[in-house]
């Protein structure tokens, strides 16, 4: 199952319920071309996330990190970490996304597993992400277990929940055994600060994308200088603020194209574009098709 254009709150939190209280686990097979902007836009969630690329290649972007993963590779993303996933080239690139709450690993509240092996690491910026490559033996074992989890979750055979939980625990232990905290200490403080600034800028853009937005207006809203806003935002997202504004407007426009009968001219105005011609040009550059063809499903 895939949730295209999943709901994202004003603070960039993914509002999708993943799994249930009884079994806080969910598996999604995500084809990026099914999303409005051909990517899983910037968001975070309380769940930890494991990814396994099924076909094509994707970028997984986090604060000051940009992982390029091809088919057969994967990654871990910790709870609360701002991230985005986009295709390297092919918008049909597909990956398994496994979301689960840390409680699934602790067996019961107050356990030694929770106190010693979970609480110190969940949401820790020094343990934000990790890529998995088949060329590294312990990472290859994780990749094999990720495929096993996908097969189990899709089969839903009797007892699959036990087997999924067992695989997740084995993966978690392997991550902890291979975590190198000393190499990550220097990034912790700046990473948290940079993420907070980027989130604030995104929140401002989402609230004002229909209007004219300037760097000065953003800087005033987030209480940083214009230059510092640009520098920190690019460090986190690997993109400029104005590129983000343009893409966010295109994402909102693509929803209106599919969900309303508004004209292209009206949608351009509604989404903050200066003219219909600029909107059409930007839309085609981003999604490789025209607004009308997109509306018609081409």
Give a structural overview.
There is one protein chain. This protein folds into two domains: 25-179, Jelly Rolls; 188-295, Homeodomain-like (Arc Repressor Mutant, subunit A, Orthogonal Bundle), CATH 1.10.10.60. 46% of the residues lie in helices and 17% in strands. The chain is built from twelve helices and nine strands. The protein has helices at residues 103-106, 112-118, 137-155, 160-177, 181-184, 188-208, 215-222, 226-237, 241-259, 264-270, 276-287, 291-295; strands at 25-31, 40-43, 48-55, 57-62, 65-70, 74-77, 83-87, 94-100, 129-132. The strands form two sheets. The protein has a five-stranded antiparallel sheet with strand order 1-8-3-6-9, with helices on one face. A four-stranded antiparallel sheet has the order 2-7-4-5, with no helix packed on it. Helix 3 (137-155) packs antiparallel against helix 4 (160-177), helix 6 (188-208) crosses helix 7 (215-222) and helix 6 packs across helix 8 (226-237). It starts with 24 loop residues before the first strand and ends with a helix. 35% of the residues are buried.
What layout of secondary structure does this protein have?
Layout lengths: L24 E7 L8 E4 L4 E8 L1 E6 L2 E6 L3 E4 L5 E5 L6 E7 L2 H4 L5 H7 L10 E4 L4 H19 L4 H18 L3 H4 L3 H21 L6 H8 L3 H12 L3 H19 L4 H7 L5 H12 L3 H5 L3
Antiparallel strand pairs: 1-8, 2-7, 3-6, 3-8, 4-5, 4-7, 6-9
Helix pairs in contact: 3-4, 6-7, 6-8, 6-9, 7-8
């Amino acid at each position: 199952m895939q949730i295209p254009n999943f709901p994202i709150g004003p603070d960039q939190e993914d509002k999708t319920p993943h799994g249930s209280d009884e079994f806080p686990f969910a598996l999604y097979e995500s084809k990026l071309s099914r999303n409005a902007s051909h990517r899983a836009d910037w968001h975070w969630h309380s769940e930890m996330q494991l990814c396994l690329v099924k076909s094509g290649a994707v970028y997984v972007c986090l604060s000051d990190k940009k992982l390029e993963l091809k088919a057969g590779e994967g990654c871990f993303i910790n709870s609360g970490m701002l991230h985005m996933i986009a295709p390297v080239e092919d918008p049909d690139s597909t990956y398994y996304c496994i979301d689960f709450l840390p409680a699934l690993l602790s067996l019961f509240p107050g356990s030694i597993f929770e106190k010693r092996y979970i609480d110190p690491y969940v949401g820790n910026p020094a343990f934000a992400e990790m890529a998995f490559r088949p060329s590294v033996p312990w990472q290859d074992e994780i990749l094999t277990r990720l495929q096993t989890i996908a097969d189990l979750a899709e089969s839903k055979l009797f007892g699959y929940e036990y087997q999924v939980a067992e695989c997740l625990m084995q993966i978690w232990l392997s991550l902890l055994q291979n975590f190198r905290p000393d190499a990550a200490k220097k990034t912790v403080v700046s990473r948290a600060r940079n993420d907070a600034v980027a989130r604030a800028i995104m929140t401002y853009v989402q609230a004002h994308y229909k209007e004219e937005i300037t760097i000065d207006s953003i800087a005033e809203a987030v209480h940083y200088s214009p230059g510092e806003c640009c520098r920190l935002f690019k460090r986190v997202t690997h993109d400029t603020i104005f590129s983000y504004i343009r893409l966010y407007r295109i994402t909102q426009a693509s929803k209106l194209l599919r969900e309303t009968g508004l004209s292209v001219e009206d949608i351009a105005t509604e989404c903050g574009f200066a003219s219909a011609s600029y909107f059409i040009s930007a839309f085609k550059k981003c999604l490789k098709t025209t607004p009308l063809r997109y509306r018609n499903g081409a």
